[in-house]
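Notes from hallway chat w/ T.B., transcribed later so I don't forget. T.B. wanted the structure written out for a chain they're using in a teaching module, and asked if we could keep both sequence and structure tokens in one place. Agreed to drop them here.
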Amino acid sequence: MTSHWTETVTLNGEAFFVRHWGDPAAPKILMLHGFPEYSGAWSDLAPLLADRFHCVAPDQRGYGQSWRPAEIDQYKTGRLVSDMVALIGDAPVIVLGHDWGASVAYALAIGRPDLVSKLIIMNGVHPAPFQRELAKGSAQTDASQYIHFLRREGSEDILAADDFAKLMGLFSSHMDMSWLKGDTLAGYKGAWRDAAGLRGMINWYRASPLKLGGPGEAIDDAPSFDPARFQVGCPHLLIWGTADTALLPCTTEGLQDYAPDLTRIEIADVDHWLHHQKPREVADAILNWL
């Protein structure tokens, strides 16, 4: 049976909750969840990797049982990355990111290449191709309109009302959520807590510099990214659930310009929540590549 334990550690002077699977002496995989997830989101996938790897999954800043400051500026990318730098320590690790966790994973690989030996992304985006698509006023702009709602002050109150009814709707829009039930659903709701608990999670959106217009609206004042400064130098695996309706395939076009050592693997008949829907297929893709 896979060894599994939890601990609370101090990172940059604050408390962070961390889950572990596997042998502490094995090579480490740092697993970074997205929105509106928490470290428990890896409970289907991590045990399938733990025979060969020590899987380390924190509740990131603003999530679960970790530190949840209310101020928006506490969620700038540099601060999120600094938490994970403190958790990693001095020895490089494999970094796996999903959704918003992919943003932190990319930032780690770009800004601290000495700490990332290999990069694995599951249905997550490099900031440069993503911002390019958001600015176009095309399909991804339309698919990302929920960002405007989340950035509004008080959106957390709306999402938490009626036992998180609106959050559940946002979470499951046009996707297969048959996995979100029983203990899994209870774990997610426990991590969300209430409107005050959701605020830190949503502040990731409010603090992001990425820009988009209204439906079908192209913009010309979006941040620009110099390919020379946003390179992923380590081996990079991108695993993509092809039925994702939140992040479209166009957001990965041109990724090889930023990640020359790139491998792409598509998994059919899964969407944004591929690690819950087909954890065995995802695990096999990771293990075979590693």
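Follow-up for T.B.: The mean pLDDT is 96. Might be a good example for the class.
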